[in-house]
Every structure is written in structure tokens, then in C-alpha cells.
Amino acid sequence: ADTIIFLSREAFRLACQGHSSSSHRKDWISVLNLIWLSVPVSLLCSAIFSWIWINLLSPPSQNLIDQYPSSVILVSAGVVIQMVAESPSLVAQVFQFIRLRVILEFLFMAVKLFVLVYAVIFAPKNVVQVWAYGYLASSLLYTCLFYICFALVLKFSPKTRSNANCSHNSDMPFTSIQDLLPRRDEKSGSFTIHAKYREVAVSFLRQGVMKQLLTEGERYLMTFLNLLTLSQQGTYDVVSNLGSLACRFIFRPVEDNAYFFFSQQWDRGVTWAKQENHDKRENVRVGLHRLLRLSLLFGLIILIFGYSYSDLLLTLYGGYGLAGNGGTSLLRAQCLLVACYAVNGITECFARSAMTQHQIDRFNLQLVYLSCVYLGLTWVLTLAVGPVGIVLANAANIGIRIGISV
Questions:
Q1: Of 233, 245, 371, 381, which is least surrounded by CB within 10 A?
Q2: CB distance 164 to 174 below 8 Å
Q3: Cα–Cα dist 142/147, whole Å
């Protein structure tokens, strides 16, 4: 599901988040039409990956095989439903409805977790299918609440009702929830798509495929080449999930908001000297410096203390079996990787917000070469030093990406 979500919406989000909140209503039509393309893209990706999961990958255990195909379809349908909420999600991001987005995303995660706990305790024989229904239900709730909340905002906001073509950042240039749906241009009568953002989105879509390969490449190798035993894969998954908590709950939200900040303050494709608004240029300079310094400090703290206390943490978390089965060395290497992620997240989000389409295409080509090097290095190091080699190869990959962004 994460792969489909990433490929379906990441490129459109990155391309459209730079749109100004002061734009008039007619300027939003082509932007929202573009973000709605995430729905057909998700349908295509869901169909392809569902077929792969059901027909090509190794089937699950015998007691789960009957519910596996229907569960895959349910999860894929849930992803498509989430894409329907991309239009109000983009508007919420641009107009800084931060609390709304946080609350709805929390409810989405909470419903999934609640259903998973219920399935494990009360329906262990049908745990996969029950969880899949929970995923579908949480996706429906997430999407419906987004539209309900915006319908209420647009209905009871006097500023929004009185002036549909307002130019203030505090006012939304929409009069009804229908303005968030795909619409024809008022002059041409056709479904127009923002040309500049479309080109950027296509470039980011190609980049997303390469980044997904770089991010999840080791899992694809483990799945198809059997580089690790099942025991080693289990230890790697547990330690990897534990080590990535900082990335998920600290660095990822910072990166998302940093990209939005840079895309709003910086004119894409314009050099430092030619930026028209010097105040915004200075905001970017100060913000980039402070974010890099803060992320580096967090990364170094995790590396220093994580290296010293990895054995104790794993013993408390999973017992001596997890700590003694190569888990300690793996978590120590994971701390190094987290420190690299801390810096790479900020450098890449600024680079992506400032790149022209030509620079994005060149960066995509560099990622193709880097993907080949990374997968080869992962294979060699895994055969040489085991699961730790996967993490070391990933750290080398992130280090190279930092150099490319800088």
C-alpha cells in the first residue's frame, strides 16, 4: 500500500504545493485538475501491484491464503479512496489548516490500529481480511471527513462566502465544495491542467520511481534473491522499524513542512541573485541554515547515544534473543543511517523546491546510476557481513544523495 500511495500522490503534491494561497479562484482550477490525476494513477498502480502481489509473489501460509486475494483488493481500493481526498488535502496544506490535517491523519492511523488490535485479539483466524476491511473503512472516514470539514468551513466562513476572488492569504477563493472537484475552465470550457506544474509532476514521478527503488531496494532484493534467512529478515524488520521511529515521527513531518516553506518562499528555477523578493530569500537562507543545524544535532544525538545503548534498548524491547542475534550491531548501524537521513531530508527538500524541470530530469538520471550502484553494493555487502551490509549500503547511498543535493 505504501508503494502505491507514494507513486500515486508524491509527484503531484510536490508539484502543486508551491501554488500561492493568494491566487484567484480561476487560477486554482488547473491546479486542482492536476492533483485529481492522482486518482487514475492510483487506479493504474493498484491494478498492477495487486496482480503482482496475488500472482507473482510467494503466497502466505495455508491458513491465510483464502483471504489474501480479497484483502489485497480491499487495501488497493482503500488507497484509491485516499487519493480522492488529495484535493482538500492540498488546499489544507496551502492555506495552513494544520490542525485539521493532523487530526484527520491521526484518526486515519488510529482506526487502522484499533481494527488491527481487534483482529489480533478477537479474530485471529481472519486477521488479514479484518485488517483490510479496517484499512478500507479508515480510508473512507479520512476522505469523507475532509470534505465534510471543508463544506462546513466554506459554509460558515463569511469572508469566503462574500468574496470568491479574494487575494488575502487568510481567505480561500472557493464558494462551495464543488470548487474542489475537477472542473472545466470558465473560458475554454475544457479540463485544463497547469502546464508548468504538469511538467514538474512528470519529472517528480520519474524521480519517485527511482527514490522508491533506492528506499525499498533492499526489501526487493531480500524478497526475490533470498539474501537473508527468514530469521535474519525478521530481526532486520524489527530493528529497522525501531530505528526508523525518529524518521517517521520527527524528520518526516519536518521535511514535509520544510518543503512547503521553501516552495512558498522560493521562485522555482530562479538563481539566488535573481530572486525578486529579498525578504523571502533571506527567510529561506535563515530557515535552511537552522533546519540543517537542528537536524544534524538530532542525528548526532541519536548516533552517539544510540551506539552506546543499542544493546540495552533491544534487550528491554525484545529480550536477549533479539539483542544477541545480531540485533545490536544492526541497530548501531541503523543509528548511523538515521543521522544521514536527518541531513539528507533537508538538503533534498530544498533542492526539489528550487530545481527547474531540466535539473529534476538530470537528477533523475543521476538516481538511475545511483540505483544500480546501490543495489550492487547492497548485494555485495550483504553477502560479506550479513544484514548490517544492507544498512551500510543504504548509508552510503544517502551520503551520495546529500552530495548530489549540495
A1: 245
A2: yes
A3: 9
